[in-house]
Design goal:
Elements: E1 3-6, E2 19-27, E3 37-42, E4 45-50, H1 58-73, H2 83-100, E5 113-118, E6 122-128, E7 132-137, E8 140-143, H3 150-156, E9 173-174, E10 189-194, E11 200-204, H4 206-209, H5 214-221, H6 227-240, E12 247-255, E13 264-267, H7 291-296, E14 306-307
Parallel strand pairs: 1-10
Antiparallel strand pairs: 2-12, 3-4, 3-13, 4-5, 5-6, 6-10, 7-8, 7-11, 9-14, 11-12
Helix pairs in contact: 1-2
């Protein structure tokens, strides 16, 4: 069953039709040899998917989910996409992973998913894994999603202070993801938020949030009225922090003077996409994994816990 959470709503008078102004970025990063993240946007929707590192086919997983979601949403009136329809789309994407995982080279592939879906006066956020959604409204910023991770479980249980979570050595262990199992999509959380002009949303992979404090992320999200400038600033800050992961961000402003959003993808979802150069930060050579790293890179155990801390650099089949 879809987990549904009603977020605090602020009633508003009749408002003009609202839309999104978006900017998206995805980079491999200086310490990775390939990009396993994907991001996509279209009319009324945006999402990120972080292919789980250490699994053969992390890029295939995030790309497959992106393709199914975009095919199911492009040209569709999002007013018709209720919670059940949204979970159905994610279930279809997860079934695609199951089909592709029949290839033994892709056994164990998985991806997170965090998506924003806008109706006339409400927003749905669909979430599984540890990618995140943030909202800035009237200058106040908050994290909307709840990580499906081992470290978040420790925080929720009172065994770890929130401020220590981002430094925990097991922060890469996630408890839920899309991996092609029959019940994966039932763990999808669908959150509801009223939609207001002036809202700013951020969807991002953990290559950003594992290396920046949450206050830093929110400060950058408020730092400029231009979504393109903010997207660039977030990526630059992650690189300044020496992120060891792929970094993907989608910045969305809710506006009344909106123009149609062209459907497009970046990262692993678009094999022909050329990553733009980042001029603000020197890019060192990608780290070569040593034998100890490879020996320790066990991506899952029998409980289904997934480790995002490592990446497979083999060329993955489509």
């Amino acid at each position: 069953m879809t987990a549904r959470q009603e977020l605090p709503a602020t009633p508003d008078a009749a408002a003009p039709a609202l839309g999104l102004r978006v900017a998206l970025r995805s980079i491999t990063g200086p310490h990775r040899a390939s990009n396993q993240d994907s991001a996509g946007v279209g009319e009324g929707f945006a999402f990120v998917a972080d292919g789980v590192g250490g699994h053969a086919g992390g890029d295939v997983a995030s790309r497959a989910v992106s393709e199914v979601l975009i095919a199911g949403l492009t040209g569709r009136d999002l007013h018709d996409v209720d919670d059940d329809a949204l979970q159905g789309l994610v279930a279809d994407a997860n079934e695609e992973l199951a089909q592709r995982a029949r290839d033994p080279r892709l056994t164990g592939m998985a991806t997170t998913f965090t998506g924003l879906f806008c109706g006339a006066d409400a927003v749905r956020v669909a979430h599984i894994g540890d990618s995140r959604a943030y909202l800035v409204r009237d200058g106040a910023g908050t994290r909307v999603t709840h990580d499906d991770s081992y470290v978040q479980l420790l925080v929720d249980s009172g065994l770890l202070e929130p401020e220590d979570a981002w430094l925990h050595p097991q922060r890469n262990l996630i408890l839920q993801s899309l991996a092609g199992a029959a019940d994966d999509a039932t763990h999808l959380a669908v959150l509801h938020q009223d939609c207001r002009e002036g809202d700013r949303w951020l969807l991002c992979s953990d290559g950003l949030t594992d290396y920046l404090l949450e206050d830093e992320v929110l400060d950058l999200l408020r730092s400029d009225p231009d979504v393109e400038a903010v997207a660039d600033a977030l990526v630059a800050a992650a690189l300044d922090a020496d992120t060891h992961d792929n970094v993907t961000v989608v910045v969305c402003d809710v506006v009344a003077d909106w123009e149609p959003v062209e459907t497009r993808v970046v990262g692993a979802a678009d094999p022909d996409w050329v990553e733009p150069p980042v001029d603000t930060v020197a890019m060192p050579e990608a780290d070569e994994p040593d034998e100890a790293d490879e020996a320790d890179a066990e991506p899952t155990d029998e409980s289904g816990v997934t480790d995002e801390s490592t990446e497979t650099d083999e060329t993955d089949p489509d």
